[in-house]
């Protein structure tokens, strides 16, 4: 595999699929729109679920992109060789267009051609679905791999747990996948060694998913009318392999970040295990924080949802910069390097530079006060401690209530001749994780919440609300900053410097209901973004649009660029009522409303 850098791989990927007739689309926001089931965009396919389910995409039936992703289920694992919270996913999609034959041929070409990754074909192995009582063995994919040049003895048939992509929920599109592996040169662990082993011989580099079935409510698998291809190649993992290093932190993605941390702290990466882990944590967490804050729909620190995850990342980074002996104010200097490294790829980071730096500095300042409060609380615990062991529940309460890192509790306890019941702490922590898991990323279903009739109507209502706010507040700069829709209610965030008065809220409500009473048809047209703007359409988050966009028009009341779906007419929506108006963050207001 030839050595390539991250910028080269991004360009190579997009150029390759552009030549194959694909529309290149921008990365969607890290903050999913209208999807309360997940905190962050966790995979390249996540923003495209409505189109995989049959909606028409403005870019056509062949798409490719580099998608920003955040996964936070393994925050505490960050610091080892491989775990990351932010990563980039290279992806391409066929929405009812080409299928296994073309995708497998292109996969082989991209992997082995000297023009692209240049992997020695002799080192390439693949896996395909072995078949079971639900769905047949995927001999079709195996035959195309053979035609491409992979001999039968390097095509492994594996069961569902390895080579099947299930539906996002309990029902929906699904199908077999085929995964590609590079032989690392490590000797086989046994005669049964295969890519299913964890012995290290096989390193996965790519995954092609073939969505050809629909799992219905009875658990039966039916052939899909629209067969899709959904692929994913992790940029950081691929770069690690291409550059021949043992860790993603040794690639060109992280080297300038780590160099800055070394310069600021005087500590050397690789000098010892504790220092290496601390530098990795700071590098990863600040990179992710920069991406979250600087996103086009970026959030700030809070005690709920995405804001809570951001706060947790930044406070963990503060903890580890202290381990390295760093002073207050260094994290934003690390952030500057990250913005410089990525501004040509994600221009929103440069646009939001001041917001990013300001939020990191502010949260570091807030955490300093939290640490002081935690230390005072610990002193009270130490004074009244009976016996030589602080209970795990007490230690966890310090963490949960004060954000006080367990490492500091252990350190302070040791200085006082005390121990901490870590078994009890870990049990309390796991109980907390189990309770919060349902509220975090693992809730992912798909698309516009569940695309139910109620949710779609509320989505249409957000367009009318947006237009009403501009009209009533007489401010053309009022713009959507985020939305979240469930079957029960809509939540709409917009920029405005003050709370709305009771009279303004009543007028906004009336304006929306006037549009509903007019019962105008909701129409959809496809055009370029420039044409849409010339036609007077509202267009938020422009960097995510492709060459063609959908414009939804609701009579004289609303005209917006949007992916849909929507109701047929405004008269279907019912009566609109604002339930609450409040602050979301600095300069951002939030309205919650229902349809009755």
Map the helices and strands.
Blueprint: H1 6-19, E1 23-24, H2 49-52, E2 62-70, E3 86-95, H3 100-112, E4 124-129, H4 139-148, E5 155-158, H5 160-163, E6 164-165, E7 172-183, E8 202-215, E9 221-234, H6 235-243, H7 255-265, H8 273-294, H9 305-323, H10 331-342, H11 348-351, H12 353-383, E10 389-390, H13 392-402, H14 406-415, E11 419-420, H15 422-437, H16 453-473, E12 480-485, E13 490-495, H17 502-518, E14 522-528, H18 529-534, E15 548-554, E16 558-561, E17 576-585, E18 588-595
Parallel strand pairs: 1-2, 4-5, 10-11
Antiparallel strand pairs: 2-3, 3-9, 4-7, 6-7, 7-8, 8-9, 12-13, 13-18, 14-15, 15-16, 17-18
Largest sheet report: 9 strands, mixed
Radius of gyration: 26 Å
Structural class: alpha+beta
Looking at the structure, the CATH topology of the largest domain is BirA Bifunctional Protein, domain 2
Shape: globular
Please count the beta strands (DSSP E, at least 2 residues each).
Answer: 18
Number of helices: 18
Mean pLDDT, as a whole number?
A: 88
Strand content of the residues, in percent? 15-25%
CATH architecture of the largest domain: 2-Layer Sandwich
Helicity range of the residues? Answer: 25-40%
Summarize the entry for a quick read.
With 596 residues, the chain is α+β, with helices and mostly antiparallel strands.
Give your account of this protein's structure.
The protein is built from 18 helices and 18 strands. The longest helix has 31 residues. The chain is an alpha+beta fold and 596 residues long. Strands 1, 2, 3, 4, 5, 6, 7, 8 and 9 form a nine-stranded mixed β-sheet that branches. It has a four-stranded antiparallel β-sheet with strand order 12-13-18-17, covered by helices on one side. The chain has four domains: 240 residues, Bira Bifunctional Protein, Domain 2 (BirA Bifunctional Protein, domain 2), CATH 3.30.930; 115 residues; 59 residues, no CATH class; 143 residues, Threonyl-tRNA Synthetase, Chain A, domain 2. A hairpin with a 3-residue loop joins strand 15 and strand 16.
